[in-house]
């Protein structure tokens, strides 16, 4: 195990650092963060629209009329369903910031480039008609949401790269003498945006010559669908969980680093569920693995599912250190914050405690995945519950009030206690010995 | 004295902030202490005299150091053990020594 700690410090940490610091990945992560508050706000309306309380729908219908549900979902359409638009601006803004070029302009150009990649038509089949007709003059809402997320992110990066490249090259237009310098500057200011628009326009024209027909189809076939399959599988989830906890074992914020890469994938999987749920709350949801799968069922009490460890500590620890740590860690732990445990116990670089810290979440990933994919437990329905929501409440909110999912959180919690307990006992005994040794200096054991 | 703390989302450092404020009061040091997430740091640096970084995002130190150097303020990673114990007193002293 000492070898593992050495390996983490020497090989995992520098690589993780480089990935986490990579400016395009950072821009994507920070750009997505811009959309998150909106998704949580939209979720509040979604939760109310589907409250599983008997008599509630009838009550609302009496109060606000039959259309109450549709009206309640207006804010959902303006939050969830435009996330790509927000991300398009956010990614470009954050990347431009890193290059020290005007972020607002870069964001605006990126939104324009994103819309340029999107055909302004909508395929519509009128009632009674056999063939669909293309309705012109609409911005198709389907691409403004999670379905357009990858195009928005990619074009945000490409547009901003072109933008800053041209600005940094400092292109100058020579106008005849006598023309005020401000006039020539105003033309120069247009060049970066113009080049971005030209590039995206030409790409769109070229793709329209192929069977793909649109940039959205290319990205979906080559990128988002394969990534979704990989990220949405049990195998993909286990790899991600393993990486998160190996990074944490080295004292690095694994969830932030891995989430920076996987975030867009888990977010689109989450939104696929949300769309199905919104259309019909009783329908079978397509995905088990979403952002909430990890936040709410695996990382109970924070990465490593350490709330179980904290409770076991409070109930059974004999050493003064572990007792006081338990009291310190329980408050934040309920809200899934566990730095007092990871750094205070510590788990970080601790060969003994790294074992259950990595093992527990892997086991919980399997139990939850099996329970949800076999239909025993309700899947997360796409409501974006903040990761700081206490367990049990979070499971209830994230599945539209399905008790099975709350019970699953409880079962996972018990499994986590069972895995952590033997290791806690060894560690607690060691600490107790140290403490007794300190009281009687003559007995002090060699460290 | 303005002490800025940062971690991935500004959550666990905010835990430390309240402990450091207590410690500052006991010591009679007048200090403004606050925590932000790593992506917000740049907007807060100009109000800070020192920047402390949570150990879990120490991979960000090179980047944060660059930003802090531009403002001419010191920056360092908080000792992991003090961070875990939420030891406000020690971290406050650490901050004071950096300035």
UniProtKB/TrEMBL annotation, chain A:
It holds the Pfam family PTS_EIIC. Residues 8-423 form the PTS EIIC type-3 domain. Keywords: Cell membrane, Membrane, Sugar transport, Transmembrane, Transmembrane helix, Transport. It is a multi-pass membrane protein. It comes from the Bacteria. The chain crosses the membrane at residues 32-53, 73-92, 104-124, 144-166, 187-207, 227-244, 251-269, 296-317, 352-372, 406-424. This is Permease IIC component. The lineage of its organism: Bacteria, Bacillati, Bacillota, Bacilli, Bacillales.
From TrEMBL, chain B:
InterPro entries: PTS_EIIB-like_sf (IPR036095), PTS_EIIB_2/3 (IPR003501), PTS_EIIB_3 (IPR013012), PTS_sugar-specific_EIIB (IPR051819). Pfam families: PTS_IIB. Keywords: Kinase, Phosphoprotein, Phosphotransferase system, Sugar transport, Transferase, Transport. Residues 1-99 form the PTS EIIB type-3 domain. It comes from the Bacteria. Coiled coil: none annotated. The modification Phosphocysteine is found at residue 7. Transmembrane segments: none annotated. SUPFAM superfamilies: PTS system IIB component-like. This is Lichenan-specific phosphotransferase enzyme IIB component. It comes from Kroppenstedtia guangzhouensis. The gene is licB.
């Amino acid at each position: 195990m000492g070898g593992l700690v050495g390996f983490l410090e020497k090989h995992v940490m520098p690589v993780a650092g480089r990935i986490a610091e990579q400016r395009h990945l950072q821009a994507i992560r920070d750009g997505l963060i811009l959309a998150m508050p909106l998704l949580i706000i939209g979720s509040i309306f979604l939760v109310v629209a589907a409250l599983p309380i008997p008599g509630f729908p009838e009550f609302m219908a009496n109060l606000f009329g039959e259309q109450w549900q549709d009206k309640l979902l207006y804010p959902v359409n303006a939050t969830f369903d435009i996330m790509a638009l927000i991300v398009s601006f956010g990614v470009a803004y954050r990347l431009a910031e890193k290059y020290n070029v005007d972020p607002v302009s870069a964001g605006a150009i990126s939104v324009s480039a994103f819309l340029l990649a999107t055909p302004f038509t909508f395929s519509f089949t009128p009632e009674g008609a056999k063939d669909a007709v293309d309705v012109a003059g609409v911005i198709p809402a389907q691409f403004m949401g999670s379905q357009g997320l990858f195009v928005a992110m990619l074009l945000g990066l490409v547009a901003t790269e072109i933008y800053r490249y041209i600005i940094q090259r400092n292109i100058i237009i020579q106008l005849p003498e006598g023309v005020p310098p401000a006039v020539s500057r105003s033309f120069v200011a247009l060049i970066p945006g113009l080049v971005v628009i030209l590039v995206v326009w030409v790409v769109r024209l070229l793709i329209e010559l192929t069977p793909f027909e649109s940039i959205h189809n290319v990205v979906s076939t080559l990128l988002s669908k394969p990534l979704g399959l990989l990220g949405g599988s049990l195998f993909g989830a286990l790899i991600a969980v393993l990486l998160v906890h190996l990074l944490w074992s080295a004292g690095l914020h694994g969830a932030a680093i891995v989430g920076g890469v996987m975030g867009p994938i888990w977010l689109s999987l989450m939104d696929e569920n949300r769309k199905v749920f919104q259309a019909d709350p009783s329908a079978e949801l397509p995905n088990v693995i979403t952002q909430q799968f990890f936040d709410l069922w695996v990382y109970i009490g924070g990465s490593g599912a350490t709330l179980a460890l904290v409770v076991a500590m409070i109930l059974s620890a004999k050493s003064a250190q572990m007792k006081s740590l338990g009291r310190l860690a329980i408050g934040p732990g309920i809200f899934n914050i566990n730095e007092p445990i990871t750094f205070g116990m510590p788990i970080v670089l601790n060969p003994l405690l790294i074992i259950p810290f990595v093992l527990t979440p892997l086991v919980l990933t399997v139990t939850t995945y099996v329970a949800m994919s076999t239909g025993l437990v309700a899947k997360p329905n796409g409501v974006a519950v903040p990761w700081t929501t206490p367990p049990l409440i979070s499971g209830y909110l994230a599945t539209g009030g399905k008790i099975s999912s709350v019970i699953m959180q409880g079962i996972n919690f018990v499994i986590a206690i069972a895995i952590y307990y033997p290791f806690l006992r060894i560690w607690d005994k060691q600490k107790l010995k140290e403490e007794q040794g300190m009281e009687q200096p003559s007995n002090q054991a060699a460290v | 004295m303005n002490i800025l703390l940062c971690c991935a989302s500004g959550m666990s450092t905010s835990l430390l902030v309240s402990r450091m404020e207590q410690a500052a009061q006991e010591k009679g040091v007048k200090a403004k202490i606050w925590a932000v997430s790593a992506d917000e740091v740049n907007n807060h640096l100009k109000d800070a005299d020192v920047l402390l970084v949570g150990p879990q995002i120490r991979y960000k130190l090179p980047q944060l150091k660059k930003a802090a150097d531009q403002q001419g303020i010191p920056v360092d990673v908080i000792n992991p053990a003090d961070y875990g114990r939420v030891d406000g007193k020690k971290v406050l002293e650490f901050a004071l020594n950096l300035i």
